[in-house]
Each structure stands twice: as structure tokens, then as C-alpha cells.
Amino acid sequence: MIVTLTPNPSNDRTVTLGHRLERGAVQRAESVLSQAGGKGVNISRAAIAAGIPSIAVLPAPKDDPFVHELLAAGIDCRPVEHDGGPLRVNITISEPDGTTTKLNSPGPSATPQMLAALTESLRRRAASADWVVLAGSLPPDAPVEWYADLVTVLRRTSACVAVDTSDAPLRALAERLPESAPHLMKPNGEELASFTGGDAAVLESDPDAAAAAARTLVERGVATVLVTLGANGAVLVTEAGAWHATPPPTEVVSTVGAGDCSLFGYLLGDIRQRTPDQRLALAVAYGSAAAGLPGTTIPHPSQVRTELVSVRGLTITQGG
Fold this sequence. Notes:
Blueprint lengths: L1 E4 L4 E8 L11 E9 L1 H11 L4 E6 L5 H8 L3 E5 L7 E7 L5 E5 L7 H15 L4 E5 L10 H9 L5 E5 L2 H9 L8 E2 L3 H8 L3 H6 L1 H13 L4 E5 L5 E5 L2 E6 L11 H14 L4 H16 L18 E5 L6
Helix pairs in contact: 1-9, 6-8, 9-10
């Protein structure tokens, strides 16, 4: 089972344009898609579609339409009540060439009581979980080190812990290694560069450089690092080795949620006891399938083509 935390859930609106976005102009949308979203929610959706039980933990009123949408989709949603205001709305503008522009609102403010309730909800459910996934941005007023604190708590349980976040919470987590080392981290190239000191453009384009940077996290206690590189696929680094996977040809429709699906693909491979290179192939196949779908649509397993993913081993030399 996969337990997910989405501490700052969002109502996602995807506006699809028939032409290139023009600033200052009036343009008509071809379609508008609305979905209950957030990184952890996306992973729970993917899990249910693949037949893997999942519990989605998030702050929201129990009678919020957001919660009802998840329950109707078959997701075991466990909301934690809060009174910080309505859930945020994130807007994605999608252009015909696959370019996406995201406008994310901050979301309701966190309170110490809400954060404590989320922590306890996760701790109670970790005993029956294969993985607990901490995913997405933190709500306003949450301490930037909260993910690091959560990992420390959850490492005392039997579950494995994965973290997918960015900016200050990611840097705070890295600063607390190895004390707060999760079993899995999933940065993209830009996020990896933000706390390893590398050049984001180089890491995004050079799998060997990305693997060398990721190796520094393994040396600091992180068991597995999955680095997503967009069109260049992904890199996986563990104590046992490093691998690079190249995605199949994909007509990109929307990249929103592709990284979340990549993370789920890896977790699915782990739960099914696949080898590291097979887990990486599943991660890249899931991410590619998601990129070919509109909005934050989660691919069905029948749309995931692992046989089209090419995986090769990497050799990380001393000093990168």
C-alpha cells in the first residue's frame, strides 16, 4: 500500500489553447479541465488505476467537493480538518507545442494543530504501508524543515519514505542529511542543482553529470535518488550502481503530473520487487505516458509502454 501526503492540495484547472499564448491578448480556450490535484493526490490516483491500495492524507474539510471527488474516484481519502480558508486553485495554460505555463496560488495557511494532526495521521497509517510519500509544496506558515521533521518521525516506522518537493523545503531536507534521510528522493535536474551546486542546464542534459550529483545524496544517507530529466528521461542512483533511461518518442500534451507519475512508476516497480533498472524503466514509461495526456490525467497501465524505454548502466567516476 502507498500512503500519500499532499499538504497543500489544489483544484487544478487546465486551459488548453489552440494557438500560442499571447500576453495581453484575448484568446479563446479549446477546453478547460478541472481536477482535484496535488502531487500526492496524483500518485494515489495512479496507484488506484494500477490496482495498488492507496490512502491520500491531506488538509481539507470532510465535506469539501475536493474530498468527494477523490472518494468518487475510489481513493481512500483521509482529510484532516483545518480552518485556514478554501483550498487553492492552480491554473495551467497548455499550448499546442506542449509548452505549459503554471499559475499557482499559495493555499490556506497551516496551523501547528493541523501539522500535528497530519503527522499523527501518517504515523498511524505507516505501519500498514509499503511506502509513505511526502509530496508537493508546503502551505503558507508551515516551517520549511517540516518535511525533514516528518522523515525523522516516519523513519521510526516500518514503511519506506519518499520525498518529492522543491525550493526551501527541499534544501532544508538536504541540510539535515543523514539524520532526515528518506529512502527515496525524486528531484528534477533544476532541483538537484539547487542544493548540490551544479549547473541546472548541464544536469538536465547530461545523465552522467546528474548521476554524479545524485551520488552525493547517496553518500549522505539517501538510499535511492531518482532524477527526472524531462525529454532526456531519468537517472537512478543507489549504493549498488547508477542507470539512465531514455523515454520513448512522445507527443507532449501536458507535462503537469508527469513527474508524479514517474515517481509512482518507480514505487510500483519496488512493490512488485523489480530490479533497479526495471523500476527505472517503469518510472520513465509512466512519466512519458502522462506527458502525452491532457491536464493532470493519470495514465492507465495499458498506456504505459516499458518495452519502448531503453536503460543503460552508468559509471560514476571519482569526483563526478
